[in-house]
Each structure stands twice: as C-alpha cells, then as structure tokens.
C-alpha cells in the first residue's frame, strides 16, 4: 500500500485493499474508511481486508520465536469479543478438564488489563520467582499440578496502565520467559476483543486452534462471526464455540429456562458447520466456586452436568486438534465456462452445483427465520443467471458467497454442500 503512488480510483466500482496485519492495521483501516467521499469518487464498494498471514515461516524460525514454548505441543486460544462473558472461567475449567484426560497442561492469562487467573485459583498474594541458574526466566505457579502464569502475579492483580503495542510485547515476553517445560497443551486466556493485541498474540504464539466464548444475544452472535473471521485470516482454526449462560435450571421448579430465548448455538452449527459448538448453563456454583478460588470442575462431583459438559469440550478440543485434515478445507470455485460452482475435497472428489440452486437454498437470517426455521425466500423471484462474485472460506467448515444479485450474507457449511439437500448439477 505505502509504495502505491497516483492510485486512480475514478470509475472503479469495487476496490479491495489488503492491509498488512500489524500494530497500525486498525488505525490505517479507520483513516481509509473515513476518507472523504471526493477522494473515493465512483467507488461503490470499498473492501478493506487483513492481508492473509504469510506461510513461509520455517519450523526452525518458529521454534526460535517460541522461546520457552518450544516444548509445548499445542497452544489453544480461548477468546471472546467482550469481557464478562465467562471466558476466563471457561479457559480455567477447560485446562483442568484436559488435565483429567491425562495431559500435561498449563494456563496463561494474557489479559494484562484485567488478570483474573490469580483470583480464580486463590493465588492473589502470589509472588514471582526466577530460577537460580536462569535469572531472566520465570517459574510458573503450580496449582493442582497445572502450571499457571498471569500478569496479575507480577502486578499484585492491579490493572495495568500501559497501553497499546507495549501490552503485546509484555505479554509475549511473559509467556516466553515462563519455564513451562514439557506440556501437551497450553491454554491461553486471551484479552477480550479482536484488536491489535489479540492479532499480535496470534502471530507471536502461533496458536494451534481457538475456542470462541459467547453469550446468547444477537449482538454476541455477530461478535462470534468477527472472532471467526480474525482467526481465519490468521490461519488459526476455530475448534469450538461455547455459548455461556444461555440457560439455567431453576432451583425451585427444576425446569430448564432460557431467559434470552433460544440463543444462537443451532445457528452457529447450521450456518458455520461448527459441530463442536456447545452450551454451558448459568449455574450459581460456577461463580460461587470461582470467587472462592476453587475451579468448579475440581469441586463438583465427576458425574455433575457441568463436569460432563467440560469433559465434552476438552474431548472436542483434543479430537479436533488430532484431525489430520484440520487445516485442509475443500476448495469451492465458480467455473465460468460451465457456469457451475464446484466443490472439491482434498482427495479429489467433486460435486457441481448450479448457482441458482445454491443461491435459492441460502440459510442466512434474511432467507430463513432464525428461530422457526421457516424459509423466508420461498416466493422470491431469483435472477436465473445469478452467479457468485466472491467466494471465501469462513472458519474451517464453511464458505461465504457474495452473489451477483447483491445478496452478501450467504454462508454454506461444506458438509451441507455435499449433502443431498443441495442437488448436484447433472450436465
Ligand atoms: P470474562 O473472562 O469473559 O471477563 P469471567 O470468566 O471472569 O468472564 O466471568 C465473569 C463472571 O461470570 C464471573 O463472576 C464468573 O464466576 C461468572 N460466570 C462465568 N460463567 C458462569 C456460568 N456458566 N454460570 C454462572 N456464573 C458464571
């Protein structure tokens, strides 16, 4: 971008700008979006995207970059767009649930502005120590056999007043200087949001996968989409989405209530094909034991529903990360000669689908009622010549299509495209 001179935007209907993902990404994107209309003469659609992460980093470079993370097999990000949705609680209980499956695990609290790990394990007064032989390194704090680290240990649980780029470097330094030794999994409790700090962390820590935590409101659903998009661009597979506090069991009548309505877990499964999405109920003991510094999965009996759900989450994470095809998605392209959309899996199997067939079977919120499942586009007269203008992967399991008739919100899980629900085009 910086080297482009005399870029003429006149008469261009659509302009796509791929911006490098660095500390200035948001700032530059903001300035471009605020660009006065007369500088963008004739441009109807300005698409500013994060430039995909380059994949030319060698394994050796990777391991050098990882410092004390070299012997950590898999690093998992637990992320949310907003604070207060239960991300830290879920990160912690997932960590202990992975431990119960027999793995060596650690947890890193990457939230400098609101470190909660020390409180969640009752170690607010903890101090940090360096090993005698390596004064620049830090010993992790052990809790129930799990290695933990948080900025809260260093700051006495005070919120940091440092800003922006420094935060990312402090966090990266802290995680890389901690003596994790051999771990099967390191769970990273990310700071909330999808901004610069989160992007730098993704780039520096080379996550193997991410879990997105959300609550059952419409706005949170939109946030999940943002989160999936961020991890997509950074080539981090989204392993699962956890909807927290969507339902609760009334202690008086013992009925299951969903005070925020049906939530979005089904939609996430249907639209993005995230089969591993799951829901954790609002449960008083979760906050009670968290406040007491006693993680709920270590406190409640093994056969308790909450333990069962966390076990499922931990198993999902392990299974997804063990999938050899995790990073191999089918390709979806439009064949302009045959005028069909072709989906091809990594073993070469293909299916051709007519554009009109796929367009008319869109399941987005504009085409299908989110809650009743009733098709809203039943009587719509579709353009018989409709074709995809843009096709791009969304998460590991779905593809988004922008159609020539202006419909921009279509997302098709690969699984659905393969299914009999979408008719194959017979030539
Ligand atoms: P975040 O990390 O997203 O800011 P926390 O994990 O700190 O959120 O959780 C916020 C509050 O909600 C805490 O008091 C926590 O104990 C409580 N909480 C989280 N999940 C549940 C749940 N499923 N049921 C009841 N309370 C919960």
Give a nutshell description of this structure.
This is Gamma-butyrobetaine hydroxylase-like N-terminal domain-containing protein. By secondary structure, the protein is α/β, with parallel strands linked by helices. Helices cover 30% and strands 23% of the residues.
CATH topology of the largest domain: Rossmann fold
Number of domains: 3
Instruction: Please identify which CATH superfamily of the largest domain we are dealing with.
Output: P-loop containing nucleotide triphosphate hydrolases
What best-fitting shape do the alpha-carbon axes yield? globular
Largest sheet, strands/sense/barrel: 9 strands, mixed
| Structural class computed from helices and strand pairing | alpha/beta
What is the radius of gyration computed over CA atoms, rounded to a whole number of angstroms? 23 Å
CATH architecture of the largest domain: 3-Layer(aba) Sandwich
What is the CATH C-level name of the largest domain? Answer: Alpha Beta
- Helical element count? 14
Mean pLDDT: 84
Small molecules in complex: adenosine-5'-diphosphate
Q: Describe it for me?
A:
The longest helix is centred in the last third of the chain and has 18 residues. 30% of the residues lie in helices and 23% in strands. The N terminus is likely disordered. It contains 14 helices and 17 strands. It is an alpha/beta fold and 427 residues long. The chain has 3 domains: 49 residues; 268 residues, Rossmann fold, CATH 3.40.50; 88 residues, 2-Layer Sandwich (NE0471 N-terminal domain-like), CATH 3.30.2020.30. The protein is globular and about 70 Å long. The strands form 4 sheets. Strands 3, 4, 5, 6, 7, 8, 9, 10 and 11 form a 9-stranded mixed sheet that branches. The structure holds adenosine-5'-diphosphate. One of its GO terms (molecular function) is metal ion binding. Pfam families: GBBH-like_N (PF06155), ParA (PF10609). This is Gamma-butyrobetaine hydroxylase-like N-terminal domain-containing protein. Keywords: ATP-binding, Iron, Iron-sulfur, Metal-binding, Nucleotide-binding. Belongs to the Mrp/NBP35 ATP-binding proteins family.
